[in-house]
Amino acid sequence: MKIVSKVGNDNVATVYIADLGEGRLVEFVESVQPPISREKKWVLIVSTLFGCPVGCRICDAGNDYQGKLSAEEMFAQIEFLVRSRFSDGVVPVERFKIQFARMGEPAFNPAVLDVLDQLPERYLVPGLMPSVSTVAPLGADRFFEQLLTIKRSRYPRGRFQLQFSIHSTDRQTRDWLIPVKKWDLPKIAEYGETFFEQGDRKITLNFALARNIPVEPKVLSDIFDPAKFLVKITPINPTFRTNQNNLVSYIDPYRVGQDSDELLENLRRAGYDVLLSIGEVEENKIGSNCGQFVTRYLKATEKVQNAYTYQVQSVG
Fold this sequence. Notes:
By secondary structure, the chain is α/β, with parallel strands linked by helices. The chain contains ten helices and eleven strands. The chain has an eleven-stranded mixed beta sheet with strand order 10-9-8-7-6-5-4-3-2-1-11, with helices on one face.
């Protein structure tokens, strides 16, 4: 793996672009959450596919799919970031989160399971917390069966985070936002009922929410048990795809005091823990936030407001 460029701010986040041969480029990210120090919380976001065949309406990393990364190609991303900070491979971080969420739907790549199975033996990390974010594509049942087995054996008692990207409770709207065949909401709930065990973290139902996109608390509460699922509401980050699809974020990342929003209150009344997750807006300018893809920016002639404003630096 050869690092060809990077962009970012060491106090917030850095995106690395690497060449894995034959013109296959991959992006991965390290980030912190100010004012929390890197010793308290450190997040790595790795890619699982070269491009993504899903093509979500909010994501710049979709399309131009060129196949799956091997387990060692995923480990190469992690290894580079770990050794850059901790040369001996010992990561003395209280919360060391590795998200399989930069580029690619992880359930399309069985090698993700190999990485998850081997991670605890590769690094001495008491605070290791893997995180898998998925749209739950149809036909990936075997992946999710094995994921359950690995979670139980390797990451019991709250040491694993599972997130389903839902984005809307309306079936047709969800199909438009996530244009791939996928589990319906009852199927996700059925799997979650099996996945969740005493001591686990609640399973996250994520809504990167745009204005005028239906989210009905009653629909959720009829399907998902609030004792086992929580709801996360995030902004739609500024991307080329959101511009093309005329999607405007329901949550304004520059505005504080949105915890009293009517939708959030209705979800809480339905019994859910509700997380309003607004990250550092500086990450939008870096291009490190979810849905952003620096490689797409480098090929573009147009601009995205409040995004991709940092200069990309060549490496080597």
